[in-house]
Amino acid sequence: MVVAKNANVATGREGRANAVELTQRVSAKLHFAPHDILVASTGIIGSPYPMDKVRIFVDGLEPDTADCSFPAIARAIMTTDTVPKHVVVRVGGATIVGVAKGVGMIEPNMATMLAFFFTDAALAQPLLHRIFRKVIDATFNCLSIDSDTSTSTAVIFANGLAGAVPEDEFEDALHGLALALVKKIARDGEGATKLLEVGVKGARDSAQARRVAKAIVNSPLVKTAIHGADPNWGRVAMAIGKCEQDIDIEPERVRIGFGDLQVYPDQLAARDLQRLSDMLRAENVRIAVDLGCGGGEATVWGCDLSAEYVSINADYST
Amino acid sequence: MVVAKNANVATGREGRANAVELTQRVSAKLHFAPHDILVASTGIIGSPYPMDKVRIFVDGLEPDTADCSFPAIARAIMTTDTVPKHVVVRVGGATIVGVAKGVGMIEPNMATMLAFFFTDAALAQPLLHRIFRKVIDATFNCLSIDSDTSTSTAVIFANGLAGAVPEDEFEDALHGLALALVKKIARDGEGATKLLEVGVKGARDSAQARRVAKAIVNSPLVKTAIHGADPNWGRVAMAIGKCEQDIDIEPERVRIGFGDLQVYPDQLAARDLQRLSDMLRAENVRIAVDLGCGGGEATVWGCDLSAEYVSINADYST
User: Fold this and answer.
1) Which residues of B132-254 form beta strands (DSSP E)?
2) CB A280 within 8 A of CB A195
């Protein structure tokens, strides 16, 4: 059960009672046991559900005739999203479907973001759990729209009807699916005009690589430079320097590039300037950093910061 | 010696040689020993000084006729500042003067911010050092425009000509002066329309209070809400929740207010709504949080996030 446009957060006892009542009503209507219903809620903080409207809606549900397709689900759970987010992949004889919503207040752990995965592949629950955790950590937990956070949900449902599939093939397929959703979310980030991918390698370990990549993707000055298609690598260097605890990063060993063009420390050849400019004007921009220290790597995804982000969030009424 | 509009950062050996040459030229011109000259440089990262212009300028200096007043200094060190920042206080028979610049890429430790203090009070160097560190930590290190950082400088010069002053009076005066400069910087933050003050009390200790206050003052969603004069306390609650390591914060004990009006957990009385609205439309906005846990306190300063911040920084050309 997904409630969109109201997070039911910081609503106290009234909020808890409303969630319980809602679960019971849905349970009665759809003939599921209440404990088989997961509740996910997203939207404004601190306002109780408008229960009058909610009761009328639930009591009027017509499950037999409603559009229960995945595209319809993706559309129904949108809040400030501008496009529904829905991806399908095949793996052997099975299918995995993912739907997600979220465009702002997004940082790990996957804040104000809902993602639901459905598959008919047969996998033992502990194995599915392990694969799912691993995939989410490398995809949704590497996404940041604005460094802000809130509650979030990611769930996978598997009914086993299509039988077993090879574990590694399933993991690859699920990873590809989750990454496609993550890119859709970043690309639809509030006010975003570009998808920003930041890859860091040569770190002491993957945790350091991720910290540095997150500092870059979350920096307002990097995000505005990308918005302005400005190859301002100084701001990327600044963001690396923000990682105060990472005192083992040596400035002399750091390499910074946009796409496959290195811009620091060696100056870009004049003949590559036009290519750099075109690259920064594209809808997908990649920043590549090599810390020149070890084998740790990480990739994170985010978006540019535009004036539109400000107006969306300055006008979002409480 | 202050060089404005060029940080001389990430310029390698050429940058170092340029700084040395500049120090020598200024030293020869003004008859100071080179080791008595402090160099502070602020502006674009990664571009060498335009030495042709700089040499002509330094060689043409006329120290006897130049305007060496503090207001002229405050004006000369501006980069994207829209107003010069200059404050004077008296303490006993002595005076303290402060000048500063900086409007963006500002987080501790005092990034891309230059602050110079001058006094004729006589204080032993170790004592002055201790007082200065303490004051800077509680003022400039509690300032954030955009969470982004770079190199910075804060220095105090004392010639002792006015004789001794009581230590505590000097510290109070210097604190007041530094705070006045911090507020001028926040108020002049890139694109800022409001000064935002965040006070956190009831924390386990002052370090926790400062972490929480910083999470609030740096949150893009809090900053845009303040820009839109929206009493969206849910975003303040979200920012407190961002402090992942502070697992001892109990949501049930947290109190959130704007100015002297508490907005969470108790709903605001209807008669106070207009006062809240007026408060949020003012040029100075204060968010007050009580974590209800201990005696730790901190206050930090910042500003709202406007579309103007984005355009200033998207168009800042490399």
Assistant:
1) 153-158, 195-203
2) no
Over 60: is that where the pLDDT of A107 sits?
A: no
Please name which of B42, B27, B40 lies closest in space to residue B116, comparing C-alpha atoms. Answer: B40
Superfamily of domain covering A68-189: L-amino peptidase D-ALA esterase/amidase (3.60.70.12)
pLDDT of A316 reads: 61
User: Does residue A119 have an active-site annotation?
Assistant: no
What is the CATH code for A1-66?
3.60.70.12
In chain B, the residue whose alpha carbon lies closest to the alpha carbon of A151 is B238
- Given A7, A307, A311, which is nearest B311 (Cβ)? A307
> What pLDDT does residue B182 have?
87
This prediction's pTM: 0.80
Mean per-residue pLDDT, B13-29: 94
- Calculate how close chain B gets to A227, using CA atoms only, in Å: 6
Of A6, A46, A151, which is closest to residue B230 (Cα–Cα)?
A46
Asked whether the predicted pLDDT for residue B107 surpasses 80, the reply is no
Q: State ipTM.
A: 0.76
Supply the CATH classification number for the domain A195-314. Answer: 3.10.20.340
Nearest chain A residue (CA) to B104: A221
Which residue, among A29, A39, A28, has the nearest Cα to A4 in the 3D structure?
Answer: A39
Average pLDDT over residues A234-247: 87
**In Å, how far is B238's CA from the nearest CA of chain A?**
6
